[in-house]
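Renewal narrative, Specific Aim 1. Our central claim is that a sequence can be written position by position from structural information alone. The example that follows is taken directly from our test logs and has not been curated for this report. It begins with the structure tokens describing the chain, in the order in which they were read.
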């Protein structure tokens, strides 16, 4: 049976039914528009439009002119996420939206320092988000389909994001730290904020029992190397907190190499330009093609999962004009561990089901390749429990996937090749 015939049988109904993950999911980029409008009215936040159609035309568009254009909407979403009630509600709704489309494991990432202020600490921000996620989890996991039937329980983790750079207008916290460290070089200020974030994340994970499962670094890559935040990553690493880094999204393979070697990254956010040897700038790298080859082989052998966000990349990377041109094809061909993610459900106007359909149809994946993409999210997750419990959960997911595959696609184990 040809790959073409096999990929055509991966139906939208099957994609919606199977258990899925989203391990690269930004809270502040994934609000419901009606909720954004309602919270903005309540809190006196001025939006460019007070209708969903208006906001989709002016801010949250199908396509964007540039990365700054893509990021414009975050000013409005962050503005309404400045108190515990709003954070809890938005987190709960995000979990509900994922549960409704069959997503059974998510890792929600955000920068707590964007939401805290005097009297509302980073720890309180994380607690509020956790309460919202936990509320949705309990509602789903108490259903008969989970307790007695075939459905998979919903689980989640929280990833605390540091920022590669920031300015005083981004939050009261950032304004304060810039004021306190006014005579220090900017890179030292950014590094200090990241280290404080790492300390808070470790404390909550180890002492408060919150499912803070990972540490991340987000923001503009060019000019703001991850190595500047090495102290924060070393602290997270030394305290057994898993690490991911936004790398290779807008910069070349060296950014990914640095994330792995200097920041101990267990996963890579995006990794879009992993194979772009022409983007290697270090003159000491005499053979960029060999450098990229060894880097890709290392990532494959160590099972460092790449968090790939197709729609987001298409919207922010002008050089990728269609899904077929995305390096996901090369990643699959190199047997890399790749998980398909949304990045931002609102800003990119997408869902996990849509992203998986894009991958299946745009790259003409066969059944085994598609299954590997789905399972990679569960296997590569920073699951908030013991390794043994994670293995049992992944086994339950695979059993459910294979059951649905047989029922909906009429597949036997040996027809998945």
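The sequence written for that structure reads:
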């Amino acid at each position: 049976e040809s790959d073409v015939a096999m990929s055509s049988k991966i139906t939208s109904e099957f994609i919606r039914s199977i258990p899925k993950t989203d391990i690269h999911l930004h809270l502040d980029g994934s609000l419901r528009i009606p909720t954004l409008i309602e919270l903005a009215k309540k809190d006196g936040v001025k939006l460019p439009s007070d209708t969903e159609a208006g906001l989709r035309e002016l801010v949250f568009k199908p396509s964007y002119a540039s990365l700054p254009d893509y990021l414009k909407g975050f000013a409005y979403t962050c503005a309404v996420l400045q108190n515990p009630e709003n954070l809890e509600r938005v987190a709960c709704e995000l979990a509900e939206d994922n549960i409704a489309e069959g997503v059974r494991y998510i890792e929600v990432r955000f920068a707590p320092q964007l939401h805290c202020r005097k009297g509302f600490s980073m720890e309180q921000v994380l607690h509020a988000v956790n309460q919202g996620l936990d509320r949705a989890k309990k509602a789903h996991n108490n259903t008969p389909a989970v307790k007695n039937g075939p459905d998979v329980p919903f689980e989640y983790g929280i990833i605390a994001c540091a920022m590669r750079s920031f300015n005083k207008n981004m939050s009261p916290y950032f304004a304060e730290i810039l004021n306190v460290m006014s005579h220090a070089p900017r890179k030292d200020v950014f590094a200090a904020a990241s280290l404080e974030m790492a300390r808070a994340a470790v404390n909550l994970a180890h002492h408060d029992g919150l499912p803070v499962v990972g540490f991340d670094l987000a923001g503009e890559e060019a000019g703001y190397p991850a190595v500047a935040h090495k102290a924060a990553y070393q602290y997270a690493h030394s305290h057994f907190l898993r690490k991911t880094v936004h790398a290779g999204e807008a910069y070349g393979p060296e950014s990914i190499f640095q994330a792995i070697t200097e920041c101990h990254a267990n996963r890579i956010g995006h990794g879009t330009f992993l194979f772009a040897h022409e983007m290697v700038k270090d003159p000491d790298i005499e053979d960029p093609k060999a450098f990229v080859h060894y880097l890709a082989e290392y990532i494959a052998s160590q099972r460092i999962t790449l968090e790939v966000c197709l729609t987001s990349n298409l919207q922010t990377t002008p050089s990728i004009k269609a899904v077929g041109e995305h390096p996901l094809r090369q990643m699959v061909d190199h047997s890399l561990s790749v998980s398909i993610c949304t990045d931002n459900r609102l800003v990119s106007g997408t869902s996990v089901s849509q992203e998986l359909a894009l991958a299946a149809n745009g790259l003409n994946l066969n059944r085994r390749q598609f299954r590997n993409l789905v399972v990679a999210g569960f296997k590569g997750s920073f699951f908030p429990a013991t390794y043994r419990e994670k293995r049992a959960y992944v086994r339950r997911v695979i059993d459910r996937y294979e059951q649905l595959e047989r029922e909906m696609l009429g597949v036997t184990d040996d027809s998945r090749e």
